[in-house]
Amino acid sequence: MPSLLFERGAPGRGATFVSDAGAAARYLDAGLLRADLPLPDLAELEVARHFTELSSRNFSVDRNFYPLGSCTMKYNPKLNEAAAAFEGFTELHPFAPDAGCQGALQLLWRMQRALTALFGMTQFSLMPAAGAHGEITAMLMAKKHFNDIGEGARNVCLVPDTAHGTNPASAAMVGYRVNAIASTARGRIDVAALKRKLGADTAVCMMTNPNTLGLFEDDIVDVTNAVHEAGGLMYYDGANANAIVGLCRPGDMGFDLLHLNLHKTFSVPHGGGGPGSGPVGANKKLAPYLPQPLVIERDGAFALDWGSQRSIGPVRAFWSHFLAVVRAYAYVIVHGVDGLRRNSELAVLNANYVRAAVKDVLAVPYEDFCRHEFVCSAEALKKKTGVRALDLAKGLLDAGIHAPTMYWPHVVPECLMIEPTETETKATLDGFAATLRGLVELAEAEPDALRAMPLHTSVRRVDEAHVGRQANKGIGLRWSAEQGAV
Ligand SMILES: Cc1ncc(COP(=O)(O)O)c(C=O)c1O
User: Fold this and answer.
1) Which atom from ligand 1 is nearest to the alpha carbon of 70?
2) 166 CA distance to ligand 1 centroid (A)?
3) What global pTM score does this model have?
4) 86 & 41 share domain
5) pLDDT tens digits for range 271-315
């Protein structure tokens, strides 16, 4: 079955509503009309079938298990969608005066307050559009703070070697020099190594907790104290907060700034499924630097407030990805704090359940219980059979399971990072563990079978090295009648 519109149809089969160029010219500037565009002629039914077929190739949480580590691909309740579809939200004009959108402002205000309480901060801005955007927002706030207090010379950002790649990137984008901190054999930040690097140039230490190995940083209070004593700020990457909501709070651990990924922890579709939302929270010292406007309540009315002279200003047009916040807010009020805590506990339980079910066939490099995710390694399997983590991931695709995150964090060779989330049933987790174990067995008996996988996906193996090298040349995105997709 041809997979591109260009490969379907036949001349004259067109389903045009504007039937002649003369009609088009009534609507479009003549200079914009082109006679030489090689567009395919397709009947409307062909177009409908084409797109319906493509949509069935999408991999999504609603169809299959999606244990993609550090991404929290949990179920997004349909109730959230109903809330986000309310006309009063969807039809709002972004320039509506405050008096004309009190309900929407109240929702934003309540969400600011809910996050403040759940994460132990003083204030939240809902403006950043995604996690990495939240990171850079917070780095800009830190930078402005240091400039304001005459310590603009602080230019080093300390980042553990297990950090998400966006952390060093965000720090570098505001002009900080990034200095990596090693992890210990327990998979935690090496506090002694950190202390050796602290000094008059320390601006920020960016930490993820639980870290990307799925482990809770049990020395976190030591870390925050040491960084503060050196005059630096602590930044919490809260993209992985699914393990902690309702159980512990970054503010209580001593963090000055944090971002969240509402599109993970608070069940907003993401990963091609919808725009994100990366709110930034700040403690009392940093709150004046938050992007504005913030939503405030005054005498029972809600308003956009531009009052802070020290704010870094807006980081995005208008309020935020407003409908993403609506979805997340629906999730918060439906669950309440007890439900949110229960979800965190189940996320941790499910991850430990799968970890225990596979650890005898794929080594789990750290002994302790994990939080919302865990990493395991296919290094021994690779040495014995040549089958790599990548091959196992391809095998999972054939079983209708999304591949785990691979080869990251770099501190674990042949790494698979698995995050089952709290929304999966025990039967799904058992099925996943059995499939993974079956693939390891198959690799030992018939390594070539693994290397040939996937056999049942619409795209088989791609030449990843080639794609990586050619990425900036638009490889795979061009099509020509002579060559097809190149
Ligand atoms: C730990 C961590 N930090 C930051 C991010 C960046 O979030 P976003 O993809 O929304 O920019 C991610 C995303 O996967 C993450 O896992």
Assistant:
1) 16
2) 7
3) 0.91
4) no
5) 765 689 999 999 999 999 999 999 999 999 999 999 999 999 999
